[in-house]
């Protein structure tokens, strides 16, 4: 299993300049939102677009709440992780302190959605961010969100220990 120190150093190395339009690296291989090795994960693929980030995502039966409709917690997990890619456009790690979602319409399973997020302002350690999720086919907005991320040093991540078998690799 990849050690926590390895994960932290590979994650820190991802805070480099990412060209506009490029795909941004996963947080790590086991990440629920974007890790390619997590069988329960959302496998988000996120690109930089200007000063923001963009992704397309389709929820499936693993994420069901009401029949045919994504669970609100699964939607929040995706939005939270998606915000985590904005951090690559800053100078270092931060974590979610506050996350607000407005569920404007049901997020349907098997329907492709586009997510967009950007940083609205920074104030010391605080990063205020906003995001939207819209149906690709119709442009209908189904979620809008704001969040507050707080910059932390890498010691924050030493509070946990990697467990299980999904954590092989850094998610580069
Ligand atoms: C291996 C690597 C993998 C890395 C993998 C990374 C994956 C990324 C995935 C996506 C992101 C996540 O899921 S992150 C996971 C979920 N989040 C977490 O686990 C974080 C848990 N919370 C914490 O650890 C802590 O609360 C912190 C570090 C966030 C903050 O603690 P703190 O430093 O003591 O700060 P605190 O005093 O609470 O607040 C700081 C300032 O924010 C203000 N503040 C607080 N709430 C608000 C608010 N709603 N609106 C405005 N301002 C607010 C306070 O008034 C204060 O202002 P002032 O008095 O200073 O002015």
Short structural description:
With 172 residues, the protein is an alpha+beta fold. It contains 2 helices and 6 strands.
Please describe what this structure looks like.
This protein is α+β, with helices and mostly antiparallel strands and 172 residues long. The chain has one domain: Roll (Thiol Ester Dehydrase, Chain A). 15% of the residues lie in helices and 31% in strands. The protein has two helices and six strands. A six-stranded antiparallel sheet has the order 1-2-4-5-6-3, covered by helices on one side. The radius of gyration is 16 Å and the shape is globular. The protein starts with a helix and ends in a 21-residue tail after the last strand. The relative contact order is 0.23. The mean pLDDT is 92. Bound molecules: dodecyl-COA (DCC). Dodecyl-COA (DCC) binds next to helix 1, helix 2, strand 3 and strand 6.
List descriptors.
binds dodecyl-COA, alpha+beta, 31% strand, 6 strands, globular, 172 residues
User: Averaged pLDDT, please?
Assistant: 92
Strand order across the largest sheet: 1-2-4-5-6-3
Name the hetero compounds present. dodecyl-COA
| Helix content, binned percent | 10-25%
What's the CATH topology name?
Thiol Ester Dehydrase, Chain A
For the largest beta-sheet, the strand count, sense and barrel status come to: 6 strands, antiparallel
């Amino acid at each position: 299993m990849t050690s926590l120190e390895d994960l932290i150093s590979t994650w820190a190395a991802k805070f480099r300049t990412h060209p506009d339009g490029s795909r941004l690296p996963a947080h790590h291989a086991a990440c629920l939102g974007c890790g390619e090795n997590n069988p329960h994960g959302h496998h988000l693929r996120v690109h930089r677009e200007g000063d923001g980030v963009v992704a397309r995502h389709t929820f499936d039966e693993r994420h069901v709440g009401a029949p045919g409709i994504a669970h609100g917690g699964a939607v929040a997990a995706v939005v939270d992780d998606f915000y985590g890619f904005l951090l690559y456009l800053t100078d270092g790690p931060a974590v979610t302190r506050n996350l607000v979602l407005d569920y404007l319409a049901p997020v349907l399973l098997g329907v492709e959605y586009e997510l967009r997020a950007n940083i609205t302002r920074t104030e010391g350690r605080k990063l205020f961010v906003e995001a939207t999720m819209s149906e690709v086919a119709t442009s209908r907005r189904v979620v809008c969100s704001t969040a507050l991320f707080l910059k932390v040093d890498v010691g924050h991540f030493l509070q946990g220990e990697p467990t299980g078998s999904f954590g092989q690799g850094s998610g580069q």
